[in-house]
Fold:
Amino acid sequence: MHAGEPHPRPTVMSDFILGSQDGLVNVLGILLGLVISVSDVRIIYIAALAALAAESISMGAVAYTSTRARRAHYLAEEKRELGEMRELPDIERDEVRQIFRDWGYEGSELEEMVRKIEAKPKAMLDLMMAFELHLAPVSAEQPLQSGLLVLGATVVGSLIPLLPFLASPGTLHADAIASVVVSGAMLFAIGWYEARSNLGNLWASGFRMLVIGLAAGLGGFAIGLLANARVF
Structure:
């Protein structure tokens, strides 16, 4: 394998965005689909809250199990790499040499770097895991932390579209419009903050998150409209 950038480590921000955006879009789609189809606000509350509970638990469980799987994969690859370092030192040395060569090292400087890293097995292992296998370490605590964070973020995101319905119940259509506005503002804020944290374009990231999220949420409105027209 050739050298390259290490696989990015999942962050608190990525987990929060995953949960909050999924919960928001999911509940918004359900709300808009029901508003166009039913007139009983209790049905809307029950459906939205049921979706909130199911989606939050599901997303938290997926984050937990997927992070556990990444940890198991990392540990298995680490064990395999250690075995290759012991049994195939020449091949591993060549792979290290290729990594440094791709970084611009040449000649005696290259060989000096290879000797130095080979003298530090832990450093060599970390280098190979990151730049040969493109894997980031996953701590024993990370699966639970990730699962709880995604669960909590999904709950928060799911509540956003419901706020207009809960805060000042009025006509369902007015509440639905307010829900779209509030949800759009939150989606833009999520995209804006993501770009701010990652030194991206604030406005472009905000509008991208807004468009993607609302487009997915408005899919629920389209399904409700079709169902109300007795297409199904």
